[in-house]
Amino acid sequence: MPRCRLCGGRSNLFLSEHRLPLCKNCYPKWFLRITERTIEKWKMFNKNEKVLVAVSGGKDSVALWYSLSKLGYNTSAVHIVISETEYSLKSENFVKEISNIIKSPYHIIRIKNELGKDIDEISKELKREHCSLCSIIKRRLLNKFAFENNYDVVVTGHNLDDETASLLGNVLRWDLKYLLNQMPVLEKKDNFVKKAKPFIRFTDKEIKLFSQIEKLPFIDERCPFSKGAHSILYKEVFERIEKEMPPSKWTFYSNFVKKIHKILLNSKEKEENLNKCKICNYPSSKETCSFCRIKEKLTIKN
What we know:
Layout: E1 13-15, E2 20-22, H1 27-41, E3 51-54, H2 59-70, E4 75-81, H3 86-102, E5 106-110, H4 111-115, H5 119-126, H6 130-148, E6 153-155, H7 160-173, H8 176-179, E7 185-186, E8 194-196, H9 204-213, H10 230-244, H11 248-265, E9 275-276, E10 283-284, H12 290-301
Parallel strand pairs: 3-4, 3-6, 4-5, 6-8
Antiparallel strand pairs: 1-2, 7-8, 9-10
């Protein structure tokens, strides 16, 4: 039986991605150490800056908020309620629970209060998939809140599985616009607040294990509106590849970040001239941004 790499005691865990034997007592220490190293390596933020954590109530965002608090960062959270389903009510309750545990404040934004309808109603009315609409709306509301309340950075719980699935989808479509935005850090630009992803080094399973060892409350079920999302398929594909050839996930993502992204940064796609949305004045490649087009269509139909 291999020994724990940190304490030298008997290990009961082996992280194949990292080729690392650990014991359960040392696993949280290692997890927090890697989180802080990632933050420092990419110069994501420091302990004097105001950090806004986007917390859905799932394991990734809950573990991120908890980890940043344990590491001494100045955090508060925002939770966006997308509907009034049982899933959403459970998610909101878990956000309240973790807030009480780490003694950090949180804020609630309801899509229905902002747009007059929840995500299910908007999806049915506009005849568009829930996930694409939800992504556009949540990004804007999150950035708007952060910008108006003077946060230095917005952080999300996107992990290695999320990033490889997204990268695979964008490569399959050769969507250069989205590929350019897949870096671990997106710097502040105009009224877009700086964005960071401190969990890019961890898989779904590693984050879930940390959450379970630390006994964190989180909702352990998929969003009811995620049915048919392509990202689920992409994750399943990568799980099969990873099982046969670890560490394929990290190799795929890190090589993109180190090599391919440099090429993209020098491409004409990077030089795309962004206009200002005629309605909200946010940067947009079109006369009206995606968020405002959604609002316009809802207004017209009403």
